[in-house]
């Protein structure tokens, strides 16, 4: 099949002739020749050009793709852990109840909290959606932050080659605005004002692919790292260490389905090699306009609950950390 039509207009010979020559954005995107892995790995300028020059086409292709998908899983509030969801819903209505949200997070090291974020029994929806994205044959750009993660994808519109499917984007915005930002503000009082800009990517580790990540910090004010493994997808190894240089301590986190770690970007962390199975995570960042992150004493130390449960007015900028 060369063209994809989804118009309800009555047949018209002249129009049909035109349409049979017309190559839809989805088809055009699928016809593109991808940059080679080696060019991608050495971050060749031609690779950057490829993603930039085709960015509009990709957005159109994802929109078209979504309209012709008949069995795409719905991504909505049911993905979130029910206890978290109820507490968050209540806090948006009555911000004074926000402590019920804070109480769901356990501090494992200064600046590092752990909690249940997604409902493991619902995660197959998100995973099936991401699989459909991978099968769409529209070029998607893997993240190359500390290392290239070949099976990952860029999630935020600021990044070239991101998952531009409108339904996915609506879910991503809901996650960032309704969940991540107020949770980050609750746990890290001084990030308020350094949380206007969003960024995100997914990653996947397996023994035969990308296996580990060296010790590093993130350029974010706050990062939330959420595990997307299903209940029947065990893995071994792949522990994530967080390091506190002042205390001379480190803490090892072992991800479980739906579990999240939310941490200040400046806490060093590293992922051990995975020894069996697969680990799939979603890594999301918040930072301020012009990539500002809080340093030392906060500018906004007198923020109250009503201010935390708001969405900032500032426009998303176009800068992409990677
Ligand atoms: O392996 C992980 O879950 C950590 C990922 C991470 O820190 C990163 O991608 O910056
Ligand atoms: Fe990181």
Structure description:
The chain is α+β, with helices and mostly antiparallel strands and 322 residues long. The chain is built from ten helices and 13 strands. The strands form three sheets. The chain has a seven-stranded antiparallel β-sheet, covered by helices on one side. β8 (240-244) and β9 form a beta hairpin. It binds 2-oxoglutaric acid and fe (ii) ion (FE2). One of its GO terms (molecular function) is oxidoreductase activity.
Could you list some keywords that capture this structure?
2 domains, oxidoreductase activity, 20% strand, disordered N terminus, Fe2OG dioxygenase domain-containing protein, binds fe (ii) ion, 31% helix, seven-stranded antiparallel sheet, alpha+beta, 322 residues, metal-binding, Oxoglu/Fe-dep_dioxygenase_dom, Jelly Rolls
């Amino acid at each position: 099949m060369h063209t994809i039509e989804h118009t309800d207009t009555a047949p018209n010979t002249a129009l049909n002739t035109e349409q049979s020559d017309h190559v839809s954005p989805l088809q055009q995107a699928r016809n593109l020749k991808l940059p080679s892995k080696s060019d991608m790995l050495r971050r060749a300028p031609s690779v950057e050009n490829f993603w930039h020059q085709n960015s509009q086409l990709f957005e159109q292709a994802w929109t078209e793709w979504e309209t012709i998908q008949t069995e795409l899983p719905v991504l909505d509030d049911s993905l979130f852990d029910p206890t978290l969801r109820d507490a968050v819903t209540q806090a948006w209505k009555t911000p004074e109840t926000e402590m019920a949200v804070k109480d769901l997070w356990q501090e494992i090291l200064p600046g590092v909290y752990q909690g249940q974020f997604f409902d493991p029994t619902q995660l197959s929806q998100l995973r099936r959606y991401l699989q459909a994205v991978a099968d769409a044959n529209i070029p998607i750009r893997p993240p190359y932050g500390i290392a290239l993660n070949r099976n990952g994808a860029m999630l935020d519109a600021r990044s070239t080659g991101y998952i531009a499917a409108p339904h996915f984007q609506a879910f991503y915005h809901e996650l960032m605005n309704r969940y991540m930002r107020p949770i980050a503000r609750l746990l890290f009082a001084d990030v308020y004002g350094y949380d206007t800009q969003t960024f995100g990517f997914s990653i996947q580790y397996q023994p035969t692919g990308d296996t580990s990540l060296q010790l590093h910090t993130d350029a974010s004010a706050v990062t939330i790292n959420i595990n997307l493994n299903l209940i029947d997808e065990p893995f071994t190894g792949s522990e994530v260490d967080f390091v506190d240089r002042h205390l001379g301590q480190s803490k090892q986190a072992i991800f479980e389905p739906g579990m999240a770690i939310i941490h200040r970007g400046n806490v060093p962390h590293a992922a051990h090699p995975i020894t069996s199975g697969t680990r799939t995570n979603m890594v999301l960042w918040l930072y301020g306009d012009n990539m500002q992150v809080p340093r030392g004493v906060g500018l906004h130390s007198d923020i109250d609950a009503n201010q935390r449960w708001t969405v900032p007015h500032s426009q998303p900028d176009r800068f992409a950390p990677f």
